[in-house]
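Quick start: what a row looks like.
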Amino acid sequence: MPGGKHEIVPVEQISRHILTIRGQKVMLDKDLAGLYGVEVRRLNEQVRRNPDRFPPEFMFQLTPNEFRRLRSQIAISKGRGGRRYLPYAFTEHGAIMLATVLNSPSAVAMSIQIVKAFVLMRRMIGAVSHLARKLDMLERKMVEHDKKFGVVFDAIRELMESPPEEPKGRIGFQHRD
């Protein structure tokens, strides 16, 4: 980047590239390469040269089935010739580690934005989880109230359906004139 200046990509824009695969929040190699300003080939080359920095909890390669599903979900084009290999998915830690192996000021600056995007996603998921728990509690309360009201309505219906009782004679002392 000329003059050492780095274009800051908004966190919201980065977070659009965060996907859930195998129950983990990840970013694909092609998206990270674009954000870090390198070719996908160079990014993956650095990963291959530094295998000890990328344990399985930092990155994994998609299976053919995962890639097919992903392609159909987010309309990844096959393009001319297509990819020669299945894409790699990087967790938050893997994305940060990429910045260290790419070793450029722009990669370091971008890694900060990527971390912020992952944090934003965690917050959003936490907020949704919190709302889901509250909704579950409310639903349980409503079901409980419905059961109680059901008992009351059943008793009222029973009273309405049973014939009125015949009045009985007076009980107690009666005064004769």
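That is the whole record. Residues 8-126 form a domain with the Mlu1-box Binding Protein; DNA-binding Domain fold (CATH 3.10.260). The longest strand covers residues 24-28.
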